[in-house]
């Protein structure tokens, strides 16, 4: 099997998404497709998947020119895609999600054969090593489990080409290892895999070749073994990107937030935490350890069953997120689509939404003031959009993440809770967000940053608290922290009870 894309061009209103891009793929390889947000990676793969027609260029499959008018035509040719934004139906079971559109029937096709469906779906999960009951409702699954079901649905159809767009963005460490093992097995079976990710470690661990796009154009293609991290970053962003590690001693800084004995159900069980003014306190831990649940308590989204908090020395017990915001505590959720953004609204409206009171004059907010306000923050975070008037749902995942950040940074809170702040964000934008985080702390903002990427926590944090089984298993200074030490705390058994 060989797939060749040459001179691919695609225009959208006001945007040249692809400008003569090229890419090739061979059977039995993992080919990493790299580039910053807006580089054209997802657009190129959507053309291959039959979602978009190219304006120019040629696609050849096994030497024959092809043009897929619909995703169904691409799937019929053996091309299956797992996009970053999941399509799992939450009100359906795993069985129904895995077999949608190809359910076995009985009685001459009059009835679904539910027993056969259940058996086939469970066999698919078992074959792929995914430890889930096929009868579970999708709404009860974690985001990582939904991601694995999405991948299982594609793999169940014996793809010749499998396109994975940010496949680990919602996965915990154990699920990541399961995915990596699955990718390697598929490669051994001769499947051609396109792997899109912003995580450098995955690229060097999994891929055989790398292609880089920048601003919709082809930049380079090389064997992975011939490329190092600095060269790959230069190819992606067109410049050097500093990756300095920060760290300060917060003991001399005033305390911004204290939590003592904070508990909610079995998710958070007696957590103690101290966050200082001008500090980045990283939060590490395995998926399900209670990291996000702890942040939601601090943000006023959920109420604790026990424990107390103090904010700048005063009692702090927000009844809802509005009360937390009124005290200067902002929460940037990991779920940017569900909790972070109003997707049909424009970029400008999303950024300005929490700041309307400060932008208003006698209760009226002039539209030009919203536009100017939003443009300033779009420029600061490098949001790539034709204008602030476009709907935020039309942006790439990484640019949506930047808008979600800008929305809350714009109100200049005293304490910011960042839950996976760079999920789906490219290396250049990450550096910009890291610099912004550091600037905020220099201005006295206290930042609690949750991340599943340990290298990220090691780079941006002054101290790192590791959550295990709903408790703080340990707090390590940045100077003393290593990935091994953090993982040792994350897997600590003495916290379970």
Explain the overall architecture.
This protein is α/β, with parallel strands linked by helices. Helix content is 34%, strand content 26%. The protein has helices at 41-48, 71-76, 94-99, 114-128, 143-155, 173-188, 200-206, 229-237, 291-298, 321-326, 336-340, 347-352, 356-359, 367-381, 397-409, 427-442, 454-460, 483-490, and strands at 2-12, 15-26, 30-34, 56-61, 64-66, 79-82, 105-106, 111-112, 161-165, 192-196, 209-214, 217-223, 255-264, 268-276, 280-285, 306-311, 314-315, 329-332, 415-419, 446-450, 463-468, 471-477. A six-stranded mixed beta sheet has the order 6-9-10-3-11-12, sandwiched between helices. A hairpin with a 2-residue loop joins β21 and β22. The longest helix has 16 residues, at 173-188. It starts with a strand and ends in a 7-residue tail after the last helix. The model has no long low-confidence stretch (mean pLDDT 88).
The 3D shape can be described as globular
The count of β-strands is: 22
How much helical structure, as a percent, in the residues?
25-40%
Strand adjacency order, main sheet? 6-9-10-3-11-12
The parts where pLDDT drops under 50 for at least 5 residues are none
Ends apart, CA distance between termini: 52 Å
What is the residue-averaged pLDDT? Answer: 88
Strand content: 25-35%
How would you name the oligomeric state of the polypeptide chains in this document? single chain
Question: How many helices does DSSP assign?
Answer: 18
Largest sheet: 6 strands, mixed
Radius of gyration: 23 Å
